[in-house]
Amino acid sequence: MLSSPVIRTSAVILAVIFLQACAAIKQIVDVQKPTANVTGVSLQNVDLEQATLLVDVEVANPNGFALKAAAFDLDLDIAESSVARVSQQDAELNIAANDKAVVQLPLSLKFEDIASALGSLDDYQAVPYAVLGSVTMNLPVLGSISLPVEHKDTLPVPRMPAISFVDASLKSVDWSGAEFALVLDVNNPNAFDLNLKSLSYALSSDGKALGGGDMKEVAISQGETRRLEIPLDVSLTNLGISLFRMLSGTDDVTLGLDATADLVPELGIWKPEPLSYKAERRLSR
Predict the structure, then answer these.
(1) How many CB atoms lie within 10 A of CB 130?
(2) Rounded to whole angstroms, how far apart are CA atoms 212 and 196?
(3) pLDDT tens for residues 16-70?
(4) Which domains are present in the chain?
(5) pLDDT (tens digit, 9 = 90+) per residue, 182-211?
(6) How far apart are the C-alpha atoms of 270 and 157, rounded to whole Å?
(7) What is the distance between the alpha carbons of residues 217 and 197, in angstroms, rounded to a whole number?
(8) CA nearest neighbour of 139 among 28, 20, 8
């Protein structure tokens, strides 16, 4: 037969185990529903064909015990049509007790799919979109639950700037040569600013190079058409027969312009290739 001290010790141990079990059961039963939100969307990369968005999904755990997010399902909707989707069914995001955790999910979409959803992108510098989806959580007692997430914003649609050869005129002529003025328009059709870091140009007539040069950086605001006036001095020996005839008579002459523009948008993740441009203009005395 057990002695009283042994019985008392066993009773204390059993009481402690029972209280701990009760606390654990109460903790499990008293489960609070976690929350999920899209806390940010950033552009990872973008070009003229597609864009990749990084979607930050934050899951908050208000409970006194750790939880796991089991799956993430997100759709990117344009005009109520899904144009991109990401599904991670094996994602195991651990969220500590009374804490938050963030997972970053990539969404890649093609602009041709956006155009199909909208009918056309011709009139859009940016398009509204919605990130819709859910986070699946595994909770004790409650089992698997789905937490809805939603985020709305706009996505810039990048377009290549355009260069136009507007005019060429003869400013002056003397024994040393001639001074021409070239007028170019550079149009920025985007919803963001860009810098024309450099513009290299060369002028020719009848296949003969007349000269050229480089322009320094020019800032062009979103939606702006910037007019550039470029002076060009041509020596008498480089004028060529056609220009010489024009200067000495009334014949018109055709001038050819070759230009290369190095463009840097204020959208840091997009760096287009240098823009090449060729054009001709008739020049008269």
Answers:
(1) 16
(2) 17
(3) 454 444 444 444 457 888 999 999 888 888 888 888 889 999 999 999 999 988 8
(4) 33-156 (2.60.40.1820), 162-283 (2.60.40.10)
(5) 899 999 998 889 898 888 988 887 777 878
(6) 11
(7) 4
(8) 28
